[in-house]
Amino acid sequence: MPFLSAIEGQFAFGRNVPQSSFTPPSNLQIWLDAGSNSSYPGSGTVWSNLVTSNAGSYWYTLSNGPASVSTIVYNGTLNRTLTFDGVNDYATPNISLLSLAQTNNWNETREYWLYWPGAPGCLTMESGSVTPGPPDSAWYDAQIGLSNRNLAYAVWADMTAKVVTTNLASNTWNHIVFQYSKSSNLMMGYVNGTRLYSNASVPRTTPDSAGYGYFPILMAGAVTNFGYGSASYLQASLGIYRWYNQIISGDQISSNFNSEKGRFGV
Description:
Blueprint: H1 4-8, E1 28-33, E2 46-47, E3 60-63, E4 68-74, E5 77-85, E6 90-93, H2 98-103, E7 107-115, E8 121-127, E9 140-147, E10 150-153, E11 162-165, E12 173-181, E13 186-191, E14 194-199, E15 215-218, E16 235-244, H3 250-260
């Protein structure tokens, strides 16, 4: 946890882990929260899903650490996050999300609360293996990269960087949202509740054929990358990750950001 002391130095310690005021919509499939004992109790390799209907089927597993637990405080309240080392730490779903992705024609939204100290890295790579395995062990590609102050997205097979912003703040918490709709070739990017990027001409190839699965892997870099830090493992803290098999509205994204920004001191 190379930057934990820098975070601790900014905030005094508090007493209890806060409850999120976020209200989950019906199309939310995975909800991981490092500050919830029900999602992560503070040790172990299982990061549990808070979506009641899917909790017994889908969760994430922490590898090569697991990621270190970071304790920080905002507004007098203790918050717990998971810190990934940027060397070999990553998190992957326990089973393929392929059937969930296919249900709504490959419309998906990924939502993150991320503390990023500025080193280049990949926030999410995609693996098309049938069963969960290490990054780059099967069909794979990087999809979200951070470098300097750039936040960039890409999808297979159009691996040209789509730059969401050139002004992403480091050493603070950011609410980052990735959206893609295969039916309309639409890619969108949001930071802190505001849409900063929209492109309706981004083609996508999906692992729909027999013998493939779908694993959005967190914090691991990919050999198949588009630059902008996407080849490297990401050194950062992740407080919340959510995955929806739908394009949620801009109003919903703004509401999510506003309901939780106090918890992350934004």
